[in-house]
Amino acid sequence: MFIAELEEMGKKSYDTSHLRTGVMAGSTCPVEVMRGVIDTMGAGEMTIVYGQTESSPGITQTRRHDSLQMRTETVGRALPHVEVAIADPNTGQELPPGETGELITRGYHVMKGYYKMPQKTREVIDEEGWLYTGDLAVMDEEGNFRIVGRLKDMIIRGGENIYPREIEEFLYTHPKVKDAQVVGVPSQKYGEEVAAFIQLRDGVDVEEEEIRDFCRDQIAYYKIPEYVCFVEEFPSTASGKIQKYRLRESFFSAES
Questions:
Q1: What is the pLDDT of residues 46-79, one digit of tens each?
Q2: Cβ pair 157, 184 in contact under 8 A
Q3: Domain end point (choices 151, 185, 200)
Q4: What is the pTM of this model?
Q5: Given CA atoms 55, 57, 63, 68 in this order, what sign does their dihedral have?
Q6: Tens-digit pLDDT profile for residues 177-231
Q7: Could you tell me the CATH number of the domain that includes residue 117?
């Protein structure tokens, strides 16, 4: 929504001087979008809320007086009466600040369970009440969390762990790119390869190799997309979350 609004403001003048604060939620927000909302719309106290349907209304939130860097690069700190930790995806052990793992949470906000699906409930909520979100994150020394991707979306290319969001954030800085989504696709040689689905800004034209050239010497070579697909729009849920599994399906359909 914010991407579309910023694009519209680039075409026509709007008075947004009355805007001050609000929240971004529902899907990950590129850093440049947050900067645009603050700088272009003037919503200098905009915050980010992170949560899930299973843990409503939220798990963490940035505060309106946090620094711009904090509000663009993290999803903030735990909300009142909410516990949040980072767990090793393999052992379930709690990890210290600075280590990447699965974000888990416990408190009043966690659902009782999926309706009439006890087995599915046990898969995400343990006996101590911790909800395993499936999101990969890092916590800093002050308790602020940075989401780096979905556990199931992590790409393993030739033994290297690749977090799609890092590549998405970088691709978004290309002046002709409106939005980008990155997924892993099968590779006989490396196990998985990086595929980037890119939505271009209106009236521009870009070749696949231009995208790869933009990445060279800026991000690690193994993170440079092997495949670049240009799309008009991304498949999404009713709440606006991108359905990456459908992007993978569309890739296979195009290849066949």
A1: 999 999 999 988 999 999 999 888 988 899 999 9
A2: yes
A3: 151
A4: 0.77
A5: positive
A6: 999 999 999 998 999 999 999 999 999 999 999 999 999 999 999 999 999 999 9
A7: 3.40.50.12780
Q: 3-state secondary structure string, the chain?
A: CHHHHHHHHCCCCCCCCCCCEEEECCCCCCHHHHHHHHHCCCCCEEEEEEEECCEEEEEEECCCCCCHHHHHHCCCEECCCEEEEEECCCCCCECCCCCCEEEEEEECCECCCCCCCHHHHHHHECCCCCEEEEEEEEECCCCCEEEEEEHHHCEEECCEEECHHHHHHHHHCCCCEEEEEEEEEEECCCEEEEEEEEEECCCCCCCHHHHHHHHCCCCCHHHCCCEEEECCCCCECCCCCECHHHHHHHHHHHHC
Let me know how long the chain is.
Answer: 256
The residue among 116, 134, 151 that closes a domain is 151
CA–CA separation, 65 vs 75, rounded Å? 14
